[in-house]
Amino acid sequence: MPAIARAQGGDAPWRPSQSIRLVVPAAPGGTADISARLLAPYLQQHYGQNCVVENRSGAGGVIGTQEVVRATPDGHTLLLGNIGPQAIGLSLFRNLPYGRDSLIPVCGTVRGPNVLVVHPSIPANTLPELVAHLKQNPGKLSYGSPGVGQSPHLTGVWFTQATGTEAIHVPFRGAGPAAMELVAGNIQFMWDNLTSGITQIRAGRVRALAVSSADRNHQLPDLPAARETMLELAKFDVNTWFGVFAPAGTPRPVVEGLNAAMKAWHGTEEVQARWREMGGVSLYGTPEQFAGFVNNEIEKWGGVIRREGLQLEVG
Known about the structure:
Layout: E1 20-24, H1 31-47, E2 51-55, H2 62-69, E3 77-82, H3 83-92, E4 103-118, H4 127-136, E5 142-145, H5 151-163, E6 168-171, H6 175-183, E7 189-193, H7 194-202, E8 207-211, H8 226-229, E9 239-247, H9 252-266, H10 269-278, E10 281-282, H11 287-308
Parallel strand pairs: 1-2, 1-3, 5-6, 5-7
Antiparallel strand pairs: 3-9, 4-7, 4-8, 4-9, 4-10
InterPro entries: BUG (IPR005064), Bug_dom1 (IPR042100)
Protein name: Tripartite tricarboxylate transporter substrate binding protein
Family: Belongs to the UPF0065 (bug) family.
């Protein structure tokens, strides 16, 4: 990630001079959208300027990301990015219209595991039972994701390859639409962000089998980690994450000012309670800490993708 550009002028804290656009590169209903709609009213109150959430879904988050990359780097257009377009996509797509230096990490919002959920009609109450069912029906079941290159897609790829199963990937324009199709029975299973999928699980509309993280999650303590359930998944460990990014060239005082506002936002009881309710963990860090985190994720997923020989064109 690029060094943060130095600004001209004095030491007064930066404040926006017009409305802030918070671009979400996914459809409404998923964790990126939830993060943005929690953050926007806080920034609006904090700065006394409108903060508008705009959903720009498509191409695994590339469309929304590109819109922010092209924006004036002055703090008035921000991206509520995530593990897909900001880490996985950098290795997955061979013709990506931006690079790792096109954005500055400002501050994380939340991280959490993905959760394996199935439609109630699927005859599987455990992950090994789902694997057995997939092996009995090779290539007949479909799994959804919020888009090619998003964390739930790559989690599904890693899962099917590790277990030696075959299933059809069906990408949607966001986690919300994918979850709706699962509830309707039009797809059979998916790895969903726990933070957005937990509502469907608690309502009994889908059946949860495992979480993708190395350890169990406090919100569903009886649900095993995938790596507990099968030897083939012993190294399985995925956390999805979300955070705010600014276009490259954004002055350092702007980035620091936004980060300070988000630190205070993370400290509010409303945000802390929402993360607990969603099974998520606060991802606050300084701009440097968040940049280090993002760079580690870029390297980790680059290794996974290279080992699997995955290369796609931006759709």
